[in-house]
Amino acid sequence: MQQTTRNIVMVRPVNFFSNPETSESNRFQKPEQQPDCAQSAARGEFDGYVAALRAAGVQVLVIEDQQPGDTPDSIFPNNWISMHADGRVFLYPMEAPNRRRERRDSTLARLRQDFYIESVTDLSGFEAQRQFLEGTGSIVFDHQARVAYVCLSSRSHPAVLDALLPQLGYRALPFDAVDRHGAAIYHTNVMMAVGRRLAVVCLQSIRDPQQRDRLRASLQLAGREIIDIDYQQMESFCGNVIELADAAGGAVFAMSSRAWHSFTPAQQARLLACGQVAHAPLDTIEDLGGGGARCMVAENFLPPKR
Predict the structure, then answer these.
(1) Could you tell me the superkingdom of the organism this chain comes from (predicted)?
(2) CATH of domain 7-299
């Protein structure tokens, strides 16, 4: 099973702002910094990031968000959809009611133009029980080892995980991760990332020594070298990175410019020894949305039609 893909889906926003329905559980949001020009700033950052990814050899399918623009977090599509190499697509239950509107049949129709979709499994029925699992925000997949890393929070419920993972043939490795103030980290993908050779993890956020050792051992057993980041780096979105692939299959580490400049020189050198880095300024998106470069990318492993 391939760990990375060259094909990704991104959604260009039409009405981006700091979502009040998500701020209670997302401590990375800074709604007090909301400018009048949030949408235009976010759109500019989005386009700059797409350009950086394409320049690095990544294939980006850009979907335009639809009016009336009542989906402020549409820029983070990885939370509602995952696309797999066997043609299966999964749709996920979302905590915030206004985020549920991001699941669009039109996006699936656009994907079907260029990719084979064998089945679509909709897990959104769990929303009625207030049980949520927000895609590859909640889950960081190690596809090679078939492990699903999940930090538990109000957005990552074990019942949904139990419904999903047997269908994929993966095992769960759940744990508790908290920010520097002791609050649960809302999504796994802001505190860790797993690539082919490297894993970026904020081990400091896992307070339970047994859980921390179990996660470290799992990554090392799978052959991953760990880049351990601290709280300050996590808050600068160093954990919110993703390894993609270029045309030749080489590694492309995608991240915000803030994250790149927050890695130490030694950590930067380790990343560059394994691949190229594609970064762009995403300050508005990170500050207001509480998510960044990895959240903006929905990996597309579906078989292409051509």
Answers:
(1) Bacteria
(2) 3.75.10.10
